[in-house]
Give the backbone structure.
Amino acid sequence: MIRVELPYHLRALAKLSGETLLEVAAPVTLGAALDALEARFPVLRGAIRDHGTLKRRPFVRFYACKEDLSQLPAATPLPEAVVRGAEPLLIVGAMAGG
Amino acid sequence: MSAVRLLIGTAKGAFILTSDGKRKHWDVSGPHFGGWEIYHLKASPADPNRIYCSQSSGWFGQIMQRSSDGGKTWETPGGAAEKTPEGFPKGESNKFVYEGEVGKHLWYDGTQHAWEFKRVWHLEPSLDDPDTCYAGVEDAAIFKTTNGGVTWKELPGLRAARGNLWQPGAGGMAVHTILLDKTRPERMYVAISAAGAFRTDDAGKTWKPINKGLVSPYSLPDPNAEVGHCVHRIALHPSRPDVLFMQKHWDVLRTDNAGDLWSDVGGNLPTDFGFPIDVHAHEPETIYVIPIKSDSEHYPPEGKLRVYRSRTGGNDWEPLTEGLPQKDCYVNIMRDAMSVDSLEPCGIYFGTTGGQVYGSSDSGDSWNAIVRDLPRVLSVEAQTIP
């Protein structure tokens, strides 16, 4: 099981109060984790990735183990610490600035 | 006794203000969807408790919400009608995909640019079916649901109406007004910034530009172009749907032939720039605008917030000031942020970028601030509850 932490507004949409645990079949890639998240919480479809292209929305970021995974291809394996549940995959709303 | 419900969309959530028919005391509920931009909410004329709501965010995109109890509770429509085996909504209600080839429109640099969905600006529920609703979106297109918002499908004929020549203005390129004709179900009007006004006479299959008479000398190389005009808002009285009123980027206009020809009725207005325009519920020739100083200075002239009323369908206008700030007022009023109820006397309401919602229960003769400190108001819809 991997741990995924969502930003406030997406937790509200998914009616979640904290982290969520997801079963992701190997190989555990970034794309597979997002597929599993959207399958578990379909209301999030379109809110993280574009409905049609599955491209990351511009102001959404993916972090894990102090690394920014946002620009990596969907087929990128997640860090081993995320795969074994020691660290969460963070889905973050980008800083607005100002 | 009848009641009035005001559906307020703001930059940071939705608010619902309710009052009895006297319209003296108001209850405020909200924020609903706190922190999200709510471009528009509107109730179904066929079912007063059915409300559609456009919730969006620069971070997380478009979410469609629906209430079946007058705004007390909300659901993403896909969740109610169609669920995964685990019981979660399928998320299709947030999906707005253009039909067929996406196509291209004119871009700022003169090149052609592919249509990209950004958000729903305006919702127009059917006059007789609570499950049918139209959505005006950015980039400009019209979508329709016939299953209560579970899924949305584009009416692509609109973009075929010279869409390659449409160009976004500073505020984007969106269908911001949809008007239904209760006497002819096949007829609809839409207005688009910055493309103009359009009409369908076959329920949305085909559309034609209806911009003859519009003149935009500082916006377009051809001031009389068929499309490209920055129409800010159009309005009609349900009893007389061939007569339309328009607040354009500059100019206030009317047509008496369903948009075939427009004429300027700005008359003695202090400035004919502005955003909203609306029609009195019981007097089809009584119309309201809120003049704004200019396209460069989006606030009332002289710092005086004045609604202007014409009882003659334009040209002859009177300022309405009682109860409105007459000094140091520099707010703007967005295009979808004025609305009328259908009580007697007619109530009229508008919201400002400063977070005030003003209301009049005497057709505009006097005004009160119903609330003063909401987030920037994007839309106001008055709903008369029988």
